[in-house]
Amino acid sequence: MTVPAWLTAFLLKFQRAFAIAVVAAQAGIAVTGSVVRVTGSGLGCPTWPECVSGSLVPVAHPEIGPLHQWVEFGNRTLTGVVGIIAGLCLLAAWVDRPRRPRVVKLALVQFGGVVVQAGIGGITVLTGLLWWTVGIHLMVSMGLTWAAVVLLAALREGDGPAVPLVSANAQRLQVVQAGVLGLLVLAGTFVTAAGPHAGDASAPRLDLPVPTLAQVHADLLFLFLGMLVGLGFLLGRHARRPYAVLVATVLAQGVIGMVQYWTGVPEVLVSVHVLGAGAVVIATAHLWTATRVRAHLDEVGLRSQTAGSSVASHA
């Protein structure tokens, strides 16, 4: 299929803007999902893919308030918006010349991820907001947010192999820290699953004590912070600004979490905390990309040719 020249020019001109937008969209859809949850609108559209039986859009229903219907329907609609943005990222990567396979794959992850998330959302509704399906929904969103940051970084990088700018110990610590971050977010989903905001009064809950789960969540946060302090020493002079942004973001998120717990988990702070989780994922992924560099393939080839010429001249 031939893409019109004007469309190609448009896609390439705004390729970076699309990538920035998909980072914001993947993190933002998690926030709107939390709004669905805290307003008790998770079953505002009680079926899927239709909103109610026989209609894709909300209609008057004797058992479901219009606010709950439109909150849930709005969130589903935003999924379509995220899909459009991800599709634009994929189209831009596809029409770019020379085509960059890594960028295409990363963009495909975004588009495919939206499709997968739509399916997970459908399963979540059809199972009556079963708590672990809601948790999976959020975890996938955070993973896609991380991948979106990597996509954005790939646009300014080359396609050569990743070359670390920091020590091997710093790299290992970053890998472990990423795993701890995943556990931290997972523990947060457990706290929410056992807490007061189920998304609907009839939704199945996680039958574990909230204080215990909140303590595990806090312990993982302190572990993450400790690792962050250690990473600061290992980074040396590299990536100081992304590191400072991550430290500030994690500290702010910790404060929000404590205030949220002390004040009885008010609805607005739940959504703010989810926003903070997305911000921490973005900042961590940004630091990850800032400690590695990828050369453009033509530069790699030039260095190889230069090295070869140098060896030949000394033979």
What does this molecule look like?
There is one protein chain. With 315 residues, the chain is mainly α. The chain has one domain (5-307). Helix content is 74%, strand content 2%. It contains 10 helices and 2 strands. It has a two-stranded antiparallel sheet with strand order 1-2. The longest helix is centred in the N-terminal third of the chain and has 30 residues, at 66-95. The radius of gyration is 22 Å and the shape is flat. The protein starts with a helix and ends with a helix.
Number of helices: 10
Could you tell me the mean pLDDT?
91
Query: What percent of the residues sit in helical stretches (DSSP H or I)?
Result: over 70%
The biggest beta sheet reads: 2 strands, antiparallel
For the record, the count of structural domains works out to: 1
Give me the strand/helix succession.
HHHHHEHHHHEH
Distance between the termini: 51 Å
* General shape: flat
Number of strands: 2
The percentage of residues in β strands lies in under 5%
Radius of gyration: 22 Å
Spatial strand arrangement across the major sheet: 1-2
Low-pLDDT stretches are 300-315
Class by SSE composition: mainly alpha
Mind sketching the topology for me?
Elements: H1 5-13, H2 15-38, H3 66-95, H4 101-126, H5 131-156, E1 162-164, H6 168-194, H7 210-235, H8 240-262, H9 267-290, E2 292-294, H10 297-313
